[in-house]
What does this fold into?
Amino acid sequence: MSHDTIETNQRTAAFADHDELWLFGYGSLIYKAGFDYSERRLATIEGWARRFWQGSHDHRGTPVAPGRVVTLVEAPGETCFGMAYRITPAHFEYLDHREKNGYLRFAQPMTLDNGQVEKGLVYIATPSNAAWLGEAPIDAIARQIVDTAGPSGPNRDYALDLADALREHGARDAHVFAVAERVRALIAAD
Ligand code: SIN
It folds into this structure.
C-alpha cells in the first residue's frame, strides 16, 4: 500500500448515501476540527486504544524524518475517548486529504455523551499501511516526537496538545500521558 490513501478512501461507498453522519476523532481532531460542523459531542468507542504508532511524513515530520502521531489499535475491553462531529459527505474531501498518510475510513459504533449509539466514521491507520512505525519504548517514541517537525508544526506540539485536550475533557489515557510526560522531560533536559 502506498502512503497516500486518498484514492482508496474515495472508492469507499460507506456513508456516501447519508445526508449526515458522525465522525469520531481521537487525535488532532479532538482539539482542532478545521471544518464547520452542525454538532460536536464527547464520545467513546469500545475495543480500541490510542497509540503513537503511526508515522507522520506529511504533517508532523518529513519523508526523511517522520514524526509520530496516533492511530487506533484493537484492544478488547478498552474504551477510547474522543470527540464526535456531525458532518456531511461533503467533508470527506477535506478529511481524506488531512488523513492521507495511511489512514482509511472505517465504520465503527460510537457512544455519544447523551447515551446515543451511532455507527459513524473513524479514520484508522492499520499495521499494513506504508507509514506504520509500530510499537516502541515510551522513551524512543518521545525522543522521536521531540526531534521532528513538519508542515503542520513541531511534533511535540501535537503530542502535548493532545494530552492537554484529553485532560481538559477529564479523559484518561495512560499511553498518551506517559509519552507527553517523557516529551516534557526531554524538552526540559535539552
Ligand atoms: C484523528 O484525530 O481522529 C485521527 C488522527 C489524527 O489526525 O491525529
Summary: Residues 25-29, 69-70, 99, 123 surround succinic acid (CB under 6 Å). The first helix runs from residue 6 to 10. Residues 6-135 form a domain with the Hypothetical upf0131 protein ytfp fold (CATH 3.10.490.10).
